[in-house]
Amino acid sequence: MNDSALLTDLYELTMLQAYFDEGMGERAVFELFVRALPPQRNFLVAAGLEQALDYLERLRFTADELAWLSGSGRFKPAFLDWLRGFRFSGDVDAMSEGTVFFADEPILRVEAPIGEAQFVESRLLNLLNFSTLIATKAARCVLAAPGKLLVDFGLRRAHGAEAGVLAARASYLAGFAGSATVLAGQRFGVPVFGTMAHAYIEAHPFESEAFTQFAASQPSRVTLLIDTYDTEAAAAKVVALAPALKARGAQLVAVRIDSGDLAAHARRVRAIFDAGGLAEVGIFASGNLDEHRIAALLAAGAPIDGFGIGTQLTTSADAPALDSAYKLQSYAGVPRRKRSEGKATWPGAKQVYRRFAADGSLLCDHVTLIGEPPPAGAVALLQPVLRGGARLAASPALDALRGDAAANLTRLPDALRRLEAAAAGESYPVHISPALQALAAEVDRRPH
Amino acid sequence: MNDSALLTDLYELTMLQAYFDEGMGERAVFELFVRALPPQRNFLVAAGLEQALDYLERLRFTADELAWLSGSGRFKPAFLDWLRGFRFSGDVDAMSEGTVFFADEPILRVEAPIGEAQFVESRLLNLLNFSTLIATKAARCVLAAPGKLLVDFGLRRAHGAEAGVLAARASYLAGFAGSATVLAGQRFGVPVFGTMAHAYIEAHPFESEAFTQFAASQPSRVTLLIDTYDTEAAAAKVVALAPALKARGAQLVAVRIDSGDLAAHARRVRAIFDAGGLAEVGIFASGNLDEHRIAALLAAGAPIDGFGIGTQLTTSADAPALDSAYKLQSYAGVPRRKRSEGKATWPGAKQVYRRFAADGSLLCDHVTLIGEPPPAGAVALLQPVLRGGARLAASPALDALRGDAAANLTRLPDALRRLEAAAAGESYPVHISPALQALAAEVDRRPH
Hints:
Chains A, B: One of its GO terms (molecular function) is nicotinate phosphoribosyltransferase activity. The structure is a homodimer. By secondary structure, the first copy, chain A, is α/β, with parallel strands linked by helices. Chain A folds into two domains: 10-134 and 319-445, nicotinate phosphoribosyltransferase, CATH 3.20.140.10; 152-314, TIM Barrel (Alpha-Beta Barrel). Chain A is built from 17 helices and 19 strands. In chain A, helix 2 runs antiparallel to helix 6 (121-144), helix 6 (121-144) packs parallel to helix 13 and helix 11 (231-247) runs parallel beside helix 12 (262-275). The longest helix of chain A has 24 residues, at 121-144. Chain A is globular. The relative contact order of chain A is 0.15. At the A-B interface, helix 1, helix 6, helix 7, helix 8 and helix 9 of A face helix 1, helix 6, helix 7, helix 8 and helix 9 of B.
């Protein structure tokens, strides 16, 4: 399903047929960008490029798909025949995954014959929107919990299979320690974490027996779930069991608390463990957490060493979508833009330059037309990744991208690192070049 | 990816190994339910059962997956060997898709050897959560726009591939006319709809030329996008072009407006069309719509015939997750429940009965233990669908389920059909049987 060429909006196909019928094959430039940051976001973290490039490289219509299109009665035989050889043959420049970016900055630029460049719109948005959304939400959690172990627990509330797996990848990229989702381990090498469910405890007649049996089954790095019946009573049972577990070779590393007042329980459990000789056993918390609740727990001094974050991460619940767009910037060398109310965009093929302060922190960005001289000391964020439909280089390792993302977060100005929306005067400066502003005015003066 | 047995949380595998090691193979009953309705929801619409049953019937570990698990070093050879033959061999009773349901009512009951019943938790929740979320959001849109053509436009903002396709299916099930997502047409027979993007208009030197060329390419049921530059000017161009389009055999059925004050534009365009002899040409609106905006447009008398609904539908943006759970209800014939604060659940294998008023509307539901005598005149909502790991009957056609969903919505009491949350006194009565309440108290008295 995920690789189907039919994973697109119908209008991409009807437009493709129209371009075909009209013989419109000149090159077009499209750019993908976000019109405005969601509420409570001071930055976004680019993610999903790897999947987007996979899609572009592999795109083709299968015989089954062509037969279905033919049967739909909407398409002409000559067009369907041409679709058989349809490939993405264009060029892509993009921001590297893990790069922090802002509103109005293209993160991906596609140049290809217009039919190809148009057709890939729906899936490119679908892929880049979601991974960027989750990497951004995860980055906020990372900023809220410096030095803590954060794990994605979100598969069950993710919107389907791909969302579950890509959320694991995007959150790891943004600094999470790993995910509970096993498939993300197999597919992307994301470290996987897991303990036990309440059902496992309940299926045993006594909680202590469940703890003992579980540790016997997998003695390496045991984490026990202690809130099924009475959290503090279970902590006391863990203390009592600890010598026997150790004697049998089990390595108890943590307990998990999943309900109630997490700060209060963590304090009491910490005290029980410290008094019981289990100072080295950590406390891991889960249960409807997000960056704000984590920050509040840590601000209150709750002795929690790690957090499992599910629903709020994997659905980006407070901002479950980006106001993103994939827009035609030029066709046959002529810059274009729509003027739809509230939705006008900057025309022409563009570059984003970033300048840094002496201490390495982000200073400001410049959005310019391609070919404008770069601002002094600025770094170009859009780099060539695909030429003639093929990757220019093997994909960077996920751990390398994760390092880049961490460096990006470190370089954020303090005002942007806060969880609350930056005040108007503190938002990050993104300058639109005078040449770009002049071009927009010129395009608008054209008759249509 | 979507069918992988590794699409699960790690703890499902570690628990499975523990059950294996302990020789725990007695039958367990798990139930899937929602703890509380999301804010602004007076009911939920069950969906996703078809995909859940597909998952259960097809579940198996491939050689690649077993090799990866082996390489992870977490699992013992005897367990991995046993996994090779692992299948879901259990029984499932469930509410039919399209059924309206409420908090605390199981919509799916699984009975199987505990390892199997436990293992399927993550993906069952992942599938049923999402489709139910979207069917419910779509049903609210349908209630807000009686008689209007509603189309899912959400693929680009859906959370990945599966979310896009399943959102199309779930919204069609709940009463939408169809979706823009082509793959939902191929996979599920969902009617597909589409027009053109602004880029298509912009790629032509003149808007009129784009209209003419598009109609020439696909003359059947043409919808033209008219807000690229100036909506009313484009409407006037459509009037001027109409005779020529008709002469060439093109059938102009509608125009689409995607920006600005949709009510004001629709009124002006309607007036231009009516004065220009295009009274039969409809107006279709899109652009960040949800059930509230649609209701407001219709309440204001906006002459809009159909709506394309994207982001808000496909992410269920105001409630992007359900507070759902899949909980052990009994093991080896003994009822179980956890007592975790704020998360206690009703123990035992249960049935949901629904009673109807004389006019056919929903009166109240009863949650009972299996084996309790049904309330007089009540209908049992959980019906057998899978026995011994195999479907009892072929899946109902999607259009039949769509009819059931429509009937369910018709039978909703007025207070629940409103978009706003029902007042406390108006929420739907779900009675927990005295025997079930007594059992919960008895289970809690057991030592653990």
